[in-house]
Write a structure and sequence with these properties.
This protein is an alpha/beta fold. It folds into 4 domains: about 100 residues, Roll (Nuclear Transport Factor 2, Chain: A); about 90 residues, Up-down Bundle (Four Helix Bundle (Hemerythrin (Met), subunit A)); about 270 residues, Rossmann fold (3-Layer(aba) Sandwich); about 220 residues, Rossmann fold, CATH 3.40.50. It has 28 helices and 25 strands. Strand 9, helix 12 and strand 10 form a beta-alpha-beta unit. Helix 6 packs parallel to helix 27 and helix 13 packs across helix 14. The radius of gyration is 29 Å and the shape is globular. The chain binds uridine-5'-diphosphate. The site of uridine-5'-diphosphate has 15 residues, from helix 22 and helix 23. It is an enzyme of class 2 (transferase). It catalyses: an NDP-alpha-D-glucose + D-fructose = a ribonucleoside 5'-diphosphate + sucrose + H(+).
Length: about 800
């Protein structure tokens, strides 16, 4: 076996003392206390150039694994990431070059001392949830992260049925538990033991076997009732018989696959509460306001899909008389500035019965807060909000919800409080954990506190992610990062808020609670270009004029002089990170690409004065400069306007009609909705290899990856694609079909809802039959809430 890295480093340091010394001192010479990965690899690369012997050394290996370092006059501390969430901490004495391992707490302690300049209190609170979950089955392989439910089913099925009778008895109890609106479902209490259940199942099978499969439940319900069966097994004889056969199989020879299919059929979810406290949450006039963006669109699409899936399942279960209930709970804002945010209840368009329920924030005196508040300022109001919202929700639903879904840090905290109190299954959705977005938001939390209150936010995150029964994310990277960058959830494993507490085990991303369930694009808006019967033909003249028109001015620049060439299309907000200017530069510098296609850009404003945002204005001016510099006015059409969804949807298809392609050139993209939209329209798509699109697209099959840091290569890849499309009949169609198939298989709201509700059932079931309840963790988190979160939130004043 290869010796451990630390031993190899030790001998390397002895044998190549000067090389190692040179690197260490070049790091010290940077004169920074904290070094990011890029600084360390750059310092190393500049030395490796001088010394051809170094690349294969243990030092090179350590540099490759190193995520960050901290340094003072005597010591260099290194954090090495061997694999996803597998960390090792080392320290090197700068004088003697001795290397020793240190534990996470010592590493964090060193960082605290550097950050505060003081020797922190010798006794600092350490947050550590690892001991609580020793008994929990954990995933072993990094590749399996995000697929917790499958693992859980496998492990727990075998545990549950360790003795067949024991498992079967738990199942019997579980089936007698189901009720909706005071009505018993599945099994009546008359079926008292396993023998009676087995006999009843045999008799029912005999009875159902003599009926036509399509016979409706009502036709034979009295006869099944006499055997102890209540509604919920299926809407017709065929389905009821199938469901019962699954149960008989389970009682005979349990398997995880049958377990999942059987659980998916049990009527468990009739009502869902979705929490999104902050922001302007409404259906019109709210987008583009502070803190109101993707999350609102996501939730509205999600709610419609959830309701549809709940309705479909209830119909299959023979319970279509029950109306599924989905309620989004948000803040009521009296000073609503023309939005509906001051309405207590608002029906959600496109759903039958889903609605928004608004509950105001109140201050300590009980007065309603009239105005909008930034998401960073909501902390003192959430506890009261949770109590008030719970009361209003119970009244609205005439009972408890079956599932509570939190959104973002504030929603997840309220979901935690409510779910704990009501004993309901809790699902968390982070959307974006802020911790990795802001550099040193943990170490220097005090300096940022006036604006951001990260102390409150990260404390709330820790509580909520550990309390949740399951967590869903849009991508793998959100949980676990990539080979060389850490995941958003992973960043909560080990960190410190100096002066407050130190986290040595904040979360375990190998816990089976994590599941990737990606959102989709609205199927009513984004559908394949070939579906001519659904196309919005009446928009075509307008789109034609917009794209090929000759008028320029306030919101357009550039006129396409060769309109027959295919279009390369991009559409995004004009943030620096979206890198629209980067794309224009690649295009401008690549003669072949320019010769083959026109570029259509929908972004920002053409008139810089129309922008209210400094970063956007700077990007606009830069784009004008590039258009001038490369002389692009005959080949690039830049539209500086926000397109409504229907037009945007038709535009993707319009570009596909002309055998064009879509490009998403961002420096980083968390998920990439436009990528999904373009693919769902059948438009071949090129997208950044940093972030979500890396997972969405399989390079060369369902689209292409481009590296935004290597514009030349990206432009060449685009040019090569169009060249091949000209030469090879069917190539464009093959990539188009690949994208469509990928979206259909992985990124639709229908699939999302189906997965989400299956997860809710499976986690709810295991919570009931096993010790997944995690009582010890819950009590620990309650204490953390009481002793850490509350004082922090109260200190903000309210
Ligand atoms: N969008 C739009 N009209 C525009 C520009 C963008 O409808 O003029 C939509 C686009 O179709 C997508 C969303 O805005 O649904 C942008 O989502 P994405 O995830 O690409 O980026 P974000 O802006 O959320 O970072």
């Amino acid at each position: 076996m290869k010796p451990r890295l630390i031993d190899r480093l030790r001998s390397y340091f002895q044998d190549h003392r000067s090389d190692a010394h040179r690197l260490l001192h070049s790091l010290v010479a940077l004169d920074r206390q904290f070094l990011l990965r890029s600084a360390i690899t750059d310092a190393y690369a500049s030395q490796a150039d001088d010394d051809a012997g170094m690349p294969d050394s243990p030092l090179a290996e350590a540099v490759a694994l190193c995520q960050e370092a901290a340094v003072n006059h005597a010591w260099l501390y290194l954090a090495l990431r061997h694999n996803v969430a597998r960390w090792q901490y080392l320290r090197v004495h700068l004088e003697t070059m001795d290397i020793e391992p240190v534990d996470a707490a010592a590493y964090l302690h060193f960082k605290e001392r550097l950050a505060t300049g003081a020797d922190e209190d010798a006794w600092t609170l350490e947050f550590d949830v690892a001991p609580f979950s020793r008994e929990m089955p954990k995933l072993q392989e990094a590749d399996s992260i995000g697929n917790g439910v499958r693992f859980l089913n496998r492990r727990l099925s075998s545990r549950l049925f360790e003795t067949l009778e024991g498992g079967a008895l738990r199942m019997l109890d579980f089936l007698r538990l189901h009720r909706c609106q005071e009505r018993q479902l599945m099994l009546s209490s008359d079926v008292g033991d396993l023998d009676s259940l087995r006999t009843a199942l045999r008799q029912a099978d005999h009875l159902l076997g003599r009926l036509p499969g399509a016979a409706l439940w009502e036709q034979f319900a009295p006869r099944l009732r006499a055997l102890g069966f209540e509604p919920g097994w299926g809407n017709d004889a065929g389905r009821v018989r199938e469901t019962m056969a699954m149960l008989r199989d389970l009682l005979e020879a349990p398997s995880p696959a049958i377990m999942e299919s059987f659980l998916a059929r049990i009527p468990m979810i009739f009502s869902v509460a979705v929490l999104s406290p902050h922001g302007w949450f409404g259906q019109s006039n709210v987008l583009g306001r502070p803190d109101t963006g993707g999350q609102v669109v996501y939730i509205l699409d999600q709610v419609r899909a959830l309701e549809a899936d709940m309705r479909r399942r209830l119909a299959e279960q023979g319970l279509d008389a029950i109306e599924p209930q989905v309620v989004v709970i948000t803040r009521l804002i009296p000073e609503a500035e023309g939005t509906t945010c001051d309405q207590r209840v608002e029906a959600i368009a496109g759903s039958s019965h889903a609605r928004i329920l608004r509950v105001p924030f109140r201050n300590a005196a009980g007065e309603v807060l009239p105005n909008w508040l930034s998401r960073f300022e909501v902390w003192p109001y959430l506890e009261r909000f949770a109590v008030d919202a719970e009361r209003d929700l119970l009244a609205e639903l005439h009972g408890r919800p079956d599932l509570i879904i939190g959104n973002y840090s504030d929603g997840n905290l309220v979901a935690t409080l409510m779910a704990q109190h009501l004993g309901v299954t809790q699902c968390n959705i982070a959307h974006a954990l802020e911790k990795t977005k802001y550099l040193y938001s943990d170490l220097y939390w005090r300096d940022m506190d006036a604006h951001y209150h990260f102390g409150c936010q990260f404390t709330a995150d820790l509580i909520a992610m550990n309390a949740a029964d399951f967590i869903i994310t849009s991508t793998y990277q959100e949980i676990a990062g990539t080979a060389d960058s850490l995941g958003q959830y992973e960043s909560y494993m080990t960190f410190t808020l100096p002066g407050l507490y130190r986290v040595v085990n904040g979360t375990d991303i190998y816990d089976p609670k994590f599941n990737i369930v990606s959102p989709g694009a609205d199927p009513d808006i984004y559908f394949p270009y070939e579906r001519s019967e659904r196309r919005l033909g009446h928009l075509h003249p307008g789109i034609e004029a917009m794209v090929f028109g000759a008028e320029t001015g306030a919101d357009a620049r550039g006129v396409l002089v060769e309109p027959d060439k295919p279009l390369l299309f991009t559409m995004a907000r004009m943030d620096r990170i979206k890198n629209i200017t980067g794309l224009v530069e690649w295009y401008g510098s690549h003669a072949e690409l320019r010769a083959r296609v026109n570029l259509l850009v929908v972004a920002g404003h053409v008139d810089p004065a129309a922008s209210g945002d400094d970063e956007e204005r700077e990007q606009i001016l830069h784009l004008h400069h590039l258009m001038d510099h490369f002389g692009l006015d005959g080949e690039v059409r830049w539209l500086g306007r926000h397109l409504d969804k229907a037009t945007a949807g038709e535009l993707y298809r319009f570009v596909a009609d002309r055998r064009g392609a879509f490009v998403q050139p961002a420096l980083f993209e968390a998920f990439g909705l436009t990528v999904i939209e373009a693919m769902a329209s059948g438009l071949p798509t090129f997208a950044t290899c940093f972030g979500g699109p890396l997972e969405i697209i399989e390079d060369g099959v369902s689209g292409f990856h481009v590296d935004p840091n290597h514009g030349d290569e990206a432009a060449a890849k685009l040019a090569a694609f169009f060249a091949r499309c000209r030469e090879e009949e069917g190539y464009w169609q093959a990539i188009s079909a690949g994208g469509l198939a990928r979206v259909e298989a992985r990124y639709t709201w229908q699939r999302y809802a189906e997965r989400m509700l299956t997860l809710a059932r499976v986690y709810g079931f295991w919570k009931y039959v096993s010790d997944l309840e995690r009582t010890e963790t819950r009590r620990y988190l309650e204490m953390f809430y009481g002793l850490q979160f509350r004082p922090l939130a109260l200190a903000l004043g309210h």
